[in-house]
Amino acid sequence: MSVRLKLTLSYAAFLLVAGALLLAVVYVYLLRYVPADTTAGPGPFFPGRYDLIRAFVPPAAWAMLFLLVLGLVGGWLLAGLMLAPLTRIQNATSKVANGSLAHRIELEGRNDEFRELADSFDVMLARLEAHDAEQRRFAANASHELRTPLAITQTLLDVARSDPDRDTDALVERLRIVNTRAIDLTEAMLMLSRSERRSFTREPVDLSLIAEEAAETLLPFAEKNGVAIEISGEVAPTVGSHTLLLQMVTNLLHNAVIHNLPAYGTVRAVTSVDVAFVALVVENTGEELSPQLVATLTEPFQRGTERIRSDHAGVGLGLAIVKSIVHAHDGILALSPRDGGGLRVTVRLPRDR
Question: What superfamily in CATH does domain 203-350 come from?
C-alpha cells in the first residue's frame, strides 16, 4: 500500500476508535439513570434498559458509519495535503536522476520539517551542480593541457622525419623538455585527485617544521633567481598527511618565487597558533594584483600574470592543489593582494590538541 493509503486508513481507524469510545462513555453514563426493567420506574412510561438499547444502537451505528466515511474521505484528502511536499521532492529527485542538476524544489510555506528537507535538498543540488561544472571545466582544461605536449611531440617527429639533415641531439632535448612537462602535468593531476579523495593517513605534524623543510628544498632555486625566503613563527601542531602538507607548502613557496620581482624579491612564511587553528601566511613581493584576478588563481590551470621564470612555467595546478589539500584537511584558504604588490596566502588548519 502507498503511504497515502496507510495514512488514510490510520486516520479512519483512529476516528472510529475515538467515536466508539465516546459512544460507549455516553451509553454507560445513560445506564446510571435507567432501571433494569420498566416495573422499577416511577411510572408506566419510564424506559427500561431494553428500550434504551433499541433507541441508542441504531443512531450509534449510523454515527459510526458516518465517522468511517468521514475518516476515509477526510483522511485521504488530509494525507494528500500533508504528503504534497514529498511529491515535489520525489519529482525533483526524478529530474536529478535524469541529469537535470539545475532543478530546484523551492518549497513555499512555513518552516517545518518538509521545508527544511526541501531546503537541504536544494543546497545539495547546488553543490552537486557546482562540483559537476568544476569537474567538466577540469576535464576540458586537462584534455587541452595534455593535448599540447602531445601535439608538439608529433610536430617535432614529423619535421624530423622529413628533414634528412636534422640535428638529433637538439630533437632529443626538445622532446625531453616536452615529455617532462607532460609528466609534471600528470603527476600534478594525480596529486590533486589524491587530495580530493582524502585517501591518506593522518598523523601529528608541525606546520612550522614543514615550512622550514619546504624552504630548504627550494632555497637553491630561490637563490638562483635572486629571491630571499624567510621562515619564522611559532610551533604549529596540526593533524594530517606530512606528504600532502609538504606539497602544499612547497607549492605556495614555489609559486611565490615564480611570481616575484625580477631581482631582490622576498618570500616570507610565518606560522602562528590560536585557540582552535594553526595558520601559515605566505607573502611575496611582485606586481600589483587585482582582487578579481586573485579570486581565480585557485582554479585548475589558471595562471596569473606573466611569470619571470620561464624555465619553471608550471602546469597551472599549483594553487588548485593547495586548495584541495587545505579542504581535505578541513582547513580554510584565503588569498588577497598584498599591499605594495604581490600575493598574500593564508592557510588555517585545525589545531592538534
Answer: Histidine kinase-like ATPase, C-terminal domain (3.30.565.10)
CA distance 326 to 349: 7
- Kindly state the percentage of the chain with pLDDT values over 90: 25
Torsions phi, psi of 239, nearest 5? Answer: -125, 130
Place of cell 567538466: 136
Q: How far apart are CA 275 and CA 281, in angstroms?
A: 17
User: Which of 16, 3, 2 has the alpha carbon at shortest distance from 70?
Assistant: 16
Three-class SS of residue 113?
helix
Per-domain residue ranges for the chain? 3-100, 141-197, 203-350
Q: Is 249 helix (H, G, I), strand (E, B) or coil?
A: helix
State the average pLDDT over residues 85-90: 80
Q: Which has more pLDDT, 345 or 118?
A: 345
98: which DSSP letter?
Answer: T
Which CA distances in Å does 88 have to 97, 105, 113?
A: 14, 7, 14
Concatenating the DSSP letter of every residue in 253-321 gives HHHHHHSS-SSSEEEEEEEEE-SSEEEEEEEE--S---HHHHTTTTSTT---SPPS-GGG---S-HHHH
Q: Are 115 and 85 in contact (CB under 8 A)?
A: yes
Render pLDDT for 122-172 as a digit per residue (tens, 0 to 9). Answer: 888 888 888 777 777 767 766 766 776 788 788 888 877 887 777 778 878
What is the model's pLDDT at position 35? 63
Burial class (CB in 10 A: 0-12, 13-18, 19+), 329: buried
pLDDT in tens, 292-346: 999 888 887 665 544 434 444 555 677 888 888 898 899 999 999 999 899 999 9
